[in-house]
Amino acid sequence: MRIEQLTFTRFLAALLIVVFHFGSGSIHFTNPYTQFIFKQANVGVSYFFMLSGFVMIIAYHKKIKIDFVDYIRNRFARIYPVYLLAIFLLFILSVVSKNLDVSNFFLNIFMIQAWIPGKALVFNVAAWSLAVELFFYMVFPFLFNHFYSKFKLKKLIIPIILFWIVSQIIFHYVVYQDDFLGWFYDKEDIMYHPVFHLNEFLVGNLAGLFFIKKSKYLKNYDWHIIGVITMVLLALKYPIGLNFHNGFLAILFIPLILLLSLNKVAITQLFNKKIFMFLGEISFGIYILQFIVWQYISDYRLNKYLGLDKVEDFVFCFFLRLFILIGLSAFSYLYIETPIRNKIRGTINAKSLNKQNV
Hints:
Elements: H1 7-22, H2 27-30, H3 35-38, H4 43-60, H5 68-96, H6 102-109, H7 128-148, H8 153-175, H9 187-192, H10 198-214, H11 222-237, H12 250-262, H13 266-271, H14 274-281, H15 283-296, H16 299-306, H17 314-357
């Protein structure tokens, strides 16, 4: 089962994160009317984690038990080809500039940087979230085989919500401690630590289990969706001292995901158009390749080869890089990600057939 209308939301979240990282120098993104959105657009990563938890349930809910080996191959087929492309491109740039840190390179190769104090953002800054995602992938088969496939939804609601509440309390306590240092981790390490993002994945799982039970009740939720988006904007505008980095916005993102999934009219029909679905499909490339594009197409090179000034031509340079990023992501999706993924999945299916014949 695929819920196509959710695909485009991944592109929107990835785009907001790119603006968060690289658009702060433009009045178009930092004017008094829009800056509250773009200054906190990193909540898009939190949305990714919740959506990941939701989609995993949708993808595997019909299975009685998940085979870990085939499952992990499928997961790696989904994320590792373009992730490796990003590492390869950064490796070339680091070697040429004589700025290669071998230890940071290998931390990224094995997707463990977010576990190591002070290393979450090394090499490819955006890749920290893949270290978190890999953690989710590792724990999901255990959760599914021992809990989700054996217990009814009612018995899972309280433990997961309690875990989310406790996670928020601990996280906010840590964030607002000026001199926090625990188990070798400081506040910044906690911001990116996989365990402190597990609550987002779990509430996504819970939303997926709820959707499976309610998926037959498709209705017109367009105005409900607009209402929830408005509440998200109000929360970003008036955060009242809350930190949204590690899942607090689940109270709005989860209803948004469910309403989009259960909706059947205008917004769904719009998001299901081929161009929007394609943009959603390449969103992972947009996210993981963003720092590579900005480093290759540096301010220095734009000035040297195109005569573009960092200040005066900021908006043009931003959208030039964004256009190149989208093009590179599309190329990667069509000619690297999809062929490799299909080949790996074909191998898995062939092995499954052989097992059945034996």
